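User: Hi! Is it possible to get a structure for several chains at once, not just one? Here's what I have:
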Amino acid sequence: MDLAKNKTTLLISGAILGLIAVILAATGNPGNMAFCIACFIRDSAGAVKLHTTATVQYFRPEIAGMLLGAFLIAVATKEYRSTAGSAPMVRFILGFIMMVGALVFLGCPLRMIIRMAAGDLNAYVGLVGFVAGIATGIVALKRGFSLGRSHETTSAAGAVLPIAWTFLFVLSLAVPALFALSESGPGSMHAPMILSLAGGLLFGIVAQRIRMCTIGGIRDLILTRNTDLFAILAGFFVIMLVGNIALDKFTVGFSGQPIAHAQHIWNFLGLYAVGFAGVLAGGCPLRQIILAGQGSSDAAVTFIGMFVGAAFCHNFGLASAAASAEAAGGPSTAGKVALIIAIAVTFVIGFMPKKK
Amino acid sequence: MRQKELRLITTFHTTADALACERACKEQGFSGRIIPVPRQLSAGCGLAWSCEPGKEEEFAEFLKEHGVEFDEMATILF
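Assistant: Yes, the chains can be modeled jointly so their relative placement is included. Here is the combined structure:
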């Protein structure tokens, strides 16, 4: 079946992915988190002890599943292309910046949609920032910004990340004592491993086939008025909305939302950074995983940037705190400063005068 | 639903090249429009240029004159 045949199949595909997220949320993944790329990369960084925040350490099977799923389907459909060489260190920085922004907002763009579908109004504030960031990135593209082209490289290079990550995942099952595992907090909340892995695999396969990208969906809408990628996001949102209502997890408001804060300016700026940096890097955090799975070493470097960025965010206290009954939550002073620097660096990258 | 028709699709190595193509075409009155890369041509999610078929050589020459590097051209139903 061609999932990408037309807008209807794309909408249905998005709904299938939303269903995976609903099932994982219902079977143990944290509330309104369900399938958050940034959170899961952050948890995985904690599991291998790159950071030591005890509440967010778990080697998430979803990430391993997505990388492997995208890799296997790309090989099966002859879309696997090992490419590299497009400004890898700049991509590392952009990945790092995306993670700083996501952890100030408390979620990647996919979780933004999940939170929107649960009635979390803070996520709508984040959406405005996200769209503004994408628009800024488009201005940079129109002014000639480019990271340069990638080139075909040795076939094995593109397989390094999917295989290495799968090895780490198998190791986490075979010798769990080597890995950290949260006993409380978001890291301790997860669906059964086999369900998470299967969900991740299916997500990776479908997302690769339909080219899902939260940034691409909005970028194409602005640049070309094309709604193909946006239809996927709409399908994902609708099924999450239905799922949340059915599971009685739909609550409209700014406060009382799971793992969120109501510091509007920082919710705006957090996703502004993700949108802006993501346009320059050629895709959102989810898309980077899929591209890495189908052989792009450049996307793999962006992924490593996110992975290291997540560790830095927790080791240096940059990640926001969720609001609670006792505290308003939000970013620390260090987190605010880091985010402003991150946005400034993204402007330098995007608007640096080109060599003639 | 829009009827599909044969179009000459040009893909690029970078988004900047795609946008440079759009700029050059608009300035010179070369008809066509920017589109997301059709799925059958690439597993990427970049941009491509869609124009009337049968102008491959002329268009390749046009792009070369304007210093725009392209990846490939294909005539497909789009």
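Chain B touches chain A at residues 1, 13-17, 19-20, 33-36, 39, 43-47, 69 (CB under 8 Å). The two ends of chain B are 12 Å apart (CA to CA).

User: Great, thank you!
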